[in-house]
Amino acid sequence: MVTPSGLVLLTDRRLASGSLPWVVARAVRGGVAWVVLRERDLPYAERRALAVTLRDLLPPGRLIVAGPDPLGADAVHLAEADPLPAAGVALIGRSQHDVPALSIEDYVMLSPVFPTSTKPGYGPALGAAGAAALAGDVPWLALGGVDSPGRAAECAVAGARGIAVLGAIMRSPDPEATARVLASAFGAARTSRAHDSVADVRLLASGTARPSGTARPAGVARPAMPPSMRSRGPAGSAGPR
């Protein structure tokens, strides 16, 4: 199963600097690898037609539909309270703001990782290290405030499979350029993290210990769960958000 990775775009036609297909097409040229179609308030026929239009702008299988109805395809992304889709859906993700409580889902989208202008006051922000600690071994995407190369790289170093971006690209007068900057920063940091991990494995295999006092390369070890996160209850609990 291929799970979303790299730069993932969430749609919001109300924030878009142009028509939704226009923004998506240019963002894809800039490096967006997956698109999550939201727009859940649209009438069914209109939303399904929009899904067909956006699928034509992406490689096969790269459009994910928010909600349990895949609108004629086989990839969905669920809100915390959404039921699982009917059988036959190949890719299922779920949004969470706490420790993932999943069943058959393939990945989780954790938010807010950073403070976000799209939802001001929404939080508290998890931070990239905090999100990684919550996710554990579940493939995860970082959502919320990933609007700069530094934040994109920080998520990659923490172990995110991808970054999910909404406002930074939807509002941009140049979605292609904005997508390129974020995708490049995330990709470079993720590649560096992978190379560091391989180097550590080779050191262990050769029996060579890392010299005392030297730092482990950034992103190799998953950060310990911050004390503030240890009190979080299961998803949906009344614990801190």
UniProtKB/TrEMBL annotation:
Chain positions covered by the region annotation Disordered: 208-241
Keyword annotations: Thiamine biosynthesis
Name of this chain's protein: Thiamine phosphate synthase/TenI domain-containing protein
Signal peptide (from-to): none
Location of the Thiamine phosphate synthase/TenI domain: 7-169
Function noted in UniProt: Condenses 4-methyl-5-(beta-hydroxyethyl)thiazole monophosphate (THZ-P) and 2-methyl-4-amino-5-hydroxymethyl pyrimidine pyrophosphate (HMP-PP) to form thiamine monophosphate (TMP).
InterPro entries: Aldolase_TIM, ThiamineP_synth_sf, ThiamineP_synth_TenI
Pfam families reported in the protein's UniProt record: TMP-TENI (PF02581)
Protein's UniProt keywords contain Magnesium: no
Keyword Plastid included in the entry's annotation: no
Metabolic or biological pathway, per its Swiss-Prot or TrEMBL entry: Cofactor biosynthesis; thiamine diphosphate biosynthesis
